[in-house]
TrEMBL record:
Residues 10-211 form the NAD-dependent epimerase/dehydratase domain. Belongs to the NAD(P)-dependent epimerase/dehydratase family. Gene3D superfamilies: NAD(P)-binding Rossmann-like Domain (3.40.50.720). It comes from Paenibacillus oryzisoli. This is NAD-dependent epimerase/dehydratase domain-containing protein. Pfam families: Epimerase. InterPro entries: Epimerase_deHydtase (IPR001509), NAD(P)-bd_dom_sf (IPR036291). Transmembrane segments: none annotated.
């Protein structure tokens, strides 16, 4: 096979969204990589089984790749111990194939700041997950600068959409509302907070994969208009045609519950995102590549609700 395979490492919500975007753009040869070698939505897609944290496996899984999309991540509580090794394996696989490596990153490395987030901000995170993200980004950019592998990093804010469950706008909002339960959110609902639709994140990453001008740099992926979290909830309730009771967790409540709940204990590190304005600036991306059409939140929410309804129907049928 000639070297034109697009390899997506990780078959979670972001990996699946990247796959959909590649197919939309007419890419024929797509290889999805995960640990099981199985994928429910694998029509016309190669699915490969392997552990990319193992260098030899990563090299084999990335064979013939033109672009490798790093959309993989370990469990949320295991980032410091497992994420760097995973990323180094993917880097080795892309380097061996001579492929471009596009990394789907988040915003944890910046830490708390009082200004909109731009790519020029220093990495001031003090928590272990933020420092892990900063370390991996630094390693990837250093590998690019040293000529080891061609890298571009795309960063997005808290995302939501089809397949997204573990997010501040995930199952505890969409799933709970559809089940008639009170929705559960963090912090202050009346401050602006950028949310990124998962398909917009994927569209931005694929753009980076097609643009050599993107290499060697960090890019903030365009998101639709920033609203307050409460305004986002109102859009969700409008789509559902019904409101739900809203439960919010304060920092003190997260600290207390976190004594018994590992996920909430981990979230405390980034709770500042939900206490102060959290606005993503993507002007650098638009200046370089033109204005990328983002999905209006109304349409994105409609697609997300549709996915949750279908998932819940399938669960009831089982």
């Amino acid at each position: 096979m000639s070297k034109h395979v697009h390899v997506i490492v990780g078959t979670g919500p972001l990996g699946m969204a990247v796959m959909r975007e590649l197919k939309r753009r007419g890419v024929e040869h797509i290889r999805m990589v995960n640990r099981s070698g199985r994928l429910s939505e694998a029509t016309g897609i190669e699915v490969a089984k392997g552990d990319v944290s193992q260098r030899t496996e990563a090299i084999a899984l990335c064979k013939d790749a033109a672009v490798v999309y790093h959309c993989a991540h370990p469990g949320y509580t295991n980032w410091p111990t497992q994420f760097p090794g995973l990323t180094r394996g993917i880097m080795a696989g892309a380097a061996a194939a001579g492929a471009k490596l596009i990394y789907g990153d988040n915003l944890y490395m910046y830490g708390q700041t009082k200004q909109p987030l731009t790519e020029k901000l220093p990495h001031l995170a003090t928590g272990k997950k933020g420092r892990t993200r900063a370390q991996m980004a630094d390693e990837l950019l250093h590998a690019h600068q040293s000529g080891k592998v061609r890298v571009a990093i795309g960063r997005a804010s808290d995302f939501y959409g089809p397949g997204v469950k573990q997010s501040s706008l995930g199952e505890r909002v969409f799933g709970f509302a559809l089940s008639g339960k009170p929705v559960s959110l963090l912090g202050n609902l009346d401050i602006p907070h950028t949310f990124t639709y998962i398909d917009d994140f994927a569209r931005g990453l694929v753009t980076l994969g097609h643009e050599d001008r993107a290499l060697g740099e960090v890019w903030h992926i365009p998101s639709a208009k920033t609203h307050t979290t409460r305004e986002m909830l109102e859009l969700i309730f409008d789509e559902l045609g019904a409101t739900s009771k809203i439960n919010t967790l304060s920092r003190g409540m997260v600290t207390m519950i976190g004594l018994f709940h590992p996920m909430l204990r981990e979230i405390k590190e980034v709770f500042y995102e939900f206490e102060h304005p959290f606005i993503l600036d993507h002007s650098k991306f638009e200046a370089a590549f033109g204005s990328q059409a983002t999905t209006p939140h109304e349409e994105a929410i409609r697609q997300t609700v549709r996915w949750y309804k279908e998932m819940m129907r399938e669960q009831r049928a089982q």
